[in-house]
Design brief:
The chain is built from 8 helices and 7 strands; from the N terminus they run ββαββααβαβαβααα. Strands 1-3-4-2-5-6-7 form a 7-stranded mixed β-sheet, sandwiched between helices. The protein has about 250 residues and is of the alpha/beta class. The protein has a single domain, classed as P-loop containing nucleotide triphosphate hydrolases (Rossmann fold), CATH 3.40.50.300. A hairpin with a 2-residue loop joins strand 3 (about 50-60) and strand 4. It has helices spanning about 30-35, 75-95, 95-120, 135-150, 175-185, 200-210, 215-220, 225-240, and strands at about 5, 15-20, 50-60, 65-70, 125-130, 155-165, 190. About 50% of the residues lie in helices and about 20% in strands. The structure holds guanosine-5'-triphosphate and magnesium ion. Magnesium ion binds next to helix 1. Magnesium ion binds near residues 28, 47, 48 and 71. Keywords: GTP-binding, Nucleotide-binding. This is Ras-related protein Rab-18. InterPro entries: P-loop_NTPase, Rab, Small_GTP-bd, Small_GTPase.
Amino acid sequence: MGSPGAGSSGGHECSFKILLIGDSGVGKSSLLVSFVAASHLDGDIAPTIGVDFKIKFLTVGGKKLKLTIWDTGHRVLFVYVYLWVGSLKSLWLHCSLLRRACHQAGQERFRTITSSYYRGAQGIILVYDVTKRESFSNLADVWTKEIEANSTNKDCIKMLVGNKVDKDDERMVTEEEGLAFAEESGCLFLESSAKTRENVEKCFEELALKILEVPSLLEEGSSSVVKRNILKQKQESHAKNGSGCCQ
Ligand code: GTP
Ligand code: MG
């Protein structure tokens, strides 16, 4: 799964969780790989199955940051495979009860994956493809609704990114439309190309800068708080497992 990105880890001051969301094929993984590797893409990237993450260390606004950037792909495929296996099981066993249980388990699993993906994120990048109108309309129909339903952080900074601007002759969504939607939804806005690397760095850096400006997000991401939270989680899991010797 995840891998450390380029750049030195030499003692970061803050650590932030960033999410990439948007329709399949809009270029989420390409933006991530291009940013982390700090180079042009070497060929096409395979569609992401499930969830992946990469880490990038960088200095923004005079602060050394660690960004853990999460990328999703075909989560729905997981559910369908799960349901399909469930259906086979039910055929095999001729048992409708089991099929219903599999269906519910699949839906529950999907919800669990989605909510844990969003939990504790300080920044969310919503990506659409400027050559695919449906990927833009799905921002309102699907993605902003998913953020509302799952984001646990009310101060979380959102950035809208219209990708693939290198394909200008195939453009279906104008820059003005992108900007208007960003303003309406309270997002920062940029257009980018993972292929030419136009605005790739800027998109992550502007988001990080904005996160640094919000005291509650800065507090959450500051290294001492991160360490304290990890310690607290360990203590809680010890207590749950009953393996702690002193409470
Ligand atoms: P899923 O993992 O399926 O959700 O897709 P994704 O959003 O991660 O898209 P991905 O990065 O896999 O890119 C999909 C296709 O678009 C690949 O063939 C990329 O090479 C291509 N692509 C990505 N970004 C750009 C871009 O800025 N310009 C052009 N021309 N092609 C791009
Ligand atoms: Mg992908």
